[in-house]
Amino acid sequence: MKITKIESIVIKMPMVVDGNVVPMSRGVARTVVETLLVRVDTDEGVSGWGEGFGSRIFSATKAAIDTVMSPMCIGRDPTAISALVEHLQHVMGNLGRNGPATFGISAIDIALWDIAGKLAGLPLYRLLGGSLRRELPAYASVPRYGEPRAVAHYVERALKRGYRHIKLHEVTEDAIGAGRKTAGPDVALMVDCSSSCTVEQAIDLAQKLKPLNLKWMEEPVWPPEDYAGLARVRTQGGIPLAAGENAMLSDFKNLFLAGAIAYAQPSIIKVGGVTQMRKVMALADAFGVSVVPHSSGLGPGLIASMHCIAAMANDSLVERYDSDVAENPLHDAITPGGNGCIAVPQGPGLGVDPDPDLIEKLRVG
Ligand SMILES: [Mg+2]
Asked: pLDDT tens across 331-352, in order?
């Protein structure tokens, strides 16, 4: 069996903004969700779908896939996944051991696992060891609004949607306090600082937030690879820390050795797909660190992440970006039910292919 074609596709899904406060990302209004899809075709007519981290830098990831990785993969056996992705890791290492190169590898790896499941006639989570769970608890990952009233509004909306775990991307006591007040004491509340603080600022913020009983504080420090700094925030701030969406496998080793985090957050569309996600999960197990994967996208990466979570022995949470889009090519497969849980697709591979008509409609590159 051979790979015959790899196509990268960029789609933009306009967000439906509820009210007049627009979510912000690093100081810029966010009104679309950009997603970089990859389709891997084979000479036996089976195709797999993957996703690489896109956001505002998708053109660099797309170029790495189209110009360098795709030609390397054509003619290779898609069922020998470890050998192929290891080869890509070595060759692409000259483009950096993180960033667009590994985001592209992630997309291809996910598509290869989709193919593997389709060939076996099994949903991916069953290839990975199976699961007792048919649905997984999700948390609402509420983007940054910056205003306490908007935070209260979206926390209330998340509660109405059945979520019992809610994460804010706020960094002020007022906004986070409004979130806790609205959520009440029994809902798990998390705060993502998106690597925006110095170590001293993060310690100060953590100490102030301690009475709010947060489940975790996420990526408080810039740069995100300041593991010694994170460990200081964890010790002196007194709140459990989460991090890892910007980390590769070897970075996780250093995070764990530094004792920096309670929750590891590998991102399947960045870290190297299913293959690397599974290695991070095993490593975290060995260090006694909980894994709660990062998933900021609304594409096949989210589905692949769900399969990996389903196959874990312990319970975890699915991160669901809490912005509505008018249409998405995976339709209801990425929408939690009224109980705040999201169903694990039961079809072969990822269990759901993106809708080709919607891809054409939303495609921008
Ligand atoms: Mg985050």
From this structure: 999 999 999 999 999 999 999 9
